[in-house]
Amino acid sequence: MSRSDGNDSYSIGNSPRGVEKKLDISFRWLTLALAITIGVILISIAIIITIGAWPAIKEFNFTFFNNSNWNPVENKYGVIAVVYGTLVSSLIALIIAIPLGVGAAVFLSEDFLPEQIRTILVFLVELLAAIPSVVYGLWGIFVLIPLTKSFGTWLNANFGWFPLFSTPPTGPGMLPAGIILAIMILPIIIAISRDSLASLPPDLRQASLGLGATRWETIFRVLIPAAISGIVGGIMLALGRAMGETMAATMIIGNSNNLNISILAPANTIASLIANQFAEASGLQVSALMYAGLVLMILTLIVNIGAEYIVNQVKARYE
Q1: Which CATH architecture group holds 64-318?
Q2: Which 3 state secondary structure label does DSSP give 78?
């Protein structure tokens, strides 16, 4: 369809509205293609790891999960110890990072300090995320391990009857690894929680204060519940980061495949196990490490599914 007016003629398809419509359609197809590509990449990674792990899956089946013996000489492998180390070190990190991260997010999203100082603090928090993990590991070796060894000795001397503190600390162990992971995931929790709080409509705060609530009542009873879905999402993303962290954990966790419930004892994680042994592995050991990597993928998938479920439940509760 075209229209002519004197010497001027144009097609509707070439009008600004027509060009904009074509751009919208092209953008939709582009985003769909990118989404499909991401799905294909994830599925291909899972397939490749499963194929590599298949000899170990056939050899060990589910006995892979009920023993802690990892012996490449005798080709006997089990991941219960490293699964325990992965989960417990991540749990220690969350216990430390959640109150610090959410508290810092509230502090940085409110006007407790002048805007210029808050901007500097936000930059410093983001700078934490840019520090390489090997630097965290070096700091952990020379600073954190001596501190936690002294603290662990006190815990063992006074609370050694409790299973979590029953082992005298030797230096590297689960506790320093959990602390270093907490520091590494803090920027994720702070950034996402702060964005969730900052994106809340100002009417919420004004309505709460107008009804007579104090500032702290407004923060804890109105703002945090309203932003809880974003906060929980940030916490779950941080948990996934902690479970998959390799270099810093490898340097300070002790790399012991013995199952020990004490957080003061050396331990290991799945990521650290793969990083330590894959370069020199051969034969069935390679397949066993791939099997361990598949277990880590499944654990991460469970975390993401759990995060989605929790976020949806929280949204339904507060909407």
Answers
A1: Orthogonal Bundle (1.10)
A2: coil
